[in-house]
Amino acid sequence: MSTPILFVDRDGTLIEEPDDFQIDAYGKLRLFPGVIPALLKLRDAGWEFVMVTNQDGLGTEAFPQADFDGPHALMLQIFESQGIRFRETLIDRSFASEGLPTRKPGIGLAMHYLRDRGIDLARSAMVGDRDTDIAFADNMGIRGFQLRTPQFGGAWDWAGIAHALVDAPRTARVQRTTRETSIRVALDLDLAGEPRVSTGLAFFDHMLDQLGKHGGFALEIEAQGDLHIDEHHTVEDTGLALGQALREALGSKRGIGRYGFDPPDDPLPAASGPRAGFTLPMDETLARAALDFSGRAYFVFDGEFRRERVGDLPTELVAHFFRSLCDAAGLNLHLQVRGDNDHHKIEAMFKAVARALRRALQRDGAGLPSTKGVL
To answer: Which of 58, 178, 184, 300 has the fewest CB atoms within 10 Å distance of its CB?
Structure first.
């Protein structure tokens, strides 16, 4: 089995880079936040590490070799004490003005990895803090991650990089724009995180928070709609955008639970059918959700509300949101609620759907859960 390689820059990536851009004294040595847990996660997933670093003028009067060797050796010792070892350390000593092919973004020092059939280049990646590190990744034909640093910006932290490479997360980003609304949705089905939701409707935000929190996935929703007219378009289009994001994140749907299960001693009514289910109590309220990522959109709702709205959300739009979600996700959802308090009923519905989603979205091997061969 071939081995994926993580090519890693040194200064500003493994260790923090000082203002003078030279780590030539022990007192300047600081590990980059989160680097050790991330490398351990990658190591345990079978990755090996190769350090690739430009050290301008190393060995010259301006940067004596001895000044470099001590802090560098201590850095390696710290990593080794945590079980992290580097397969190779590639150091270019030239200045940018020389334009040598061994200096990043050139790949002269790493050419042997392109010829090594034991290396899984399709999974290999490069992590660095500068544009030249990303250009190095492009020249190698591998994925590049630019760390977020004060000096050079970047979008990633070490935890996010390890998650992206090891967990192979199911993610999606959807932008839905019409004359009535602009909706942005971001999903990571394999990362639990605090939801970030803003639709202009406070109670609706609170309900969408329940989907992410109890569904066990990272959820971001930003919606701008024609609320000066009414709430309909914002709620409907948010459901459509979220459903599209779910569909895209699941891809072929290989390896998902698809259904989940209901407690065997508390089955859903026969009319709801044998779908993925969750029964959730909330004070006097009981909500039941059963769903199937069948690819066939269908929504059945059994419940009623006494109030015209809860907070700033019209109650008539609650079922409409779930119908829109089903239409875009290709989801079969049966939803039932009983109770006296409309706030409790709506919140219990969202939580029950979220818990059913958590079960259905769980990874369960690599097969396709369908005898048809497609979902």
So the answer is: 178
In this prediction the pTM is 0.78
**pLDDT value at position 190?**
93
Q: Are 68 and 12 in the same domain?
A: yes
**Same domain, residue pair 35 and 58:** yes
Q: Among 113, 132, 166, where does a domain finish?
A: 166
**Catalytic option among 9, 92, 133, 292:** 9
Q: Tell me: do 176 and 127 sit in the same domain.
A: no
The one-letter code for the residue type at 161 is: I
Check if 11 is active-site. yes
CATH number (domain holding residue 159)? 3.40.50.1000
341: domain range? 170-375
Q: What is the mean pLDDT of each run of 10 residues along the chain (375 residues)?
A: 94 91 88 97 96 95 93 97 97 95 97 95 96 98 96 94 93 97 97 95 98 96 97 98 96 78 45 58 95 94 97 98 97 96 98 94 77 74
The answer to whether residues 206 and 260 belong to one domain is: yes
Residue 162 and residue 160: Cα distance in Å, rounded?
6
Residue 20 counted as an annotated binding residue: no
Query: Rounded CA gap, 288 and 280, in Å?
Result: 6
Q: Rounded to whole angstroms, what are the CA distances from 123 to 22, 46, 165, 323?
A: 32, 11, 8, 39
Cα–Cα dist 255/70, whole Å: 49
The question of whether 9 is a catalytic residue gets the answer yes
Q: Which of 120, 140, 166 is the last residue of a domain?
A: 166
Within this chain, do residues 251 and 290 fall inside the same structural domain, yes or no? yes
**105 lies in the same domain as 61:** yes
Q: Is 9 annotated as a binding residue?
A: yes
Give CA–CA dist 145/28, Å, rounded. Answer: 25
Helix, strand, coil percent content, the chain, rounded in steps of 5: 35, 25, 40
Helical H runs in 268-373?
316-329, 342-361
The annotation status of 188 as a binding-site residue, yes or no, is no
Q: Annotated catalytic residue: which of 11, 133, 237, 292?
A: 11
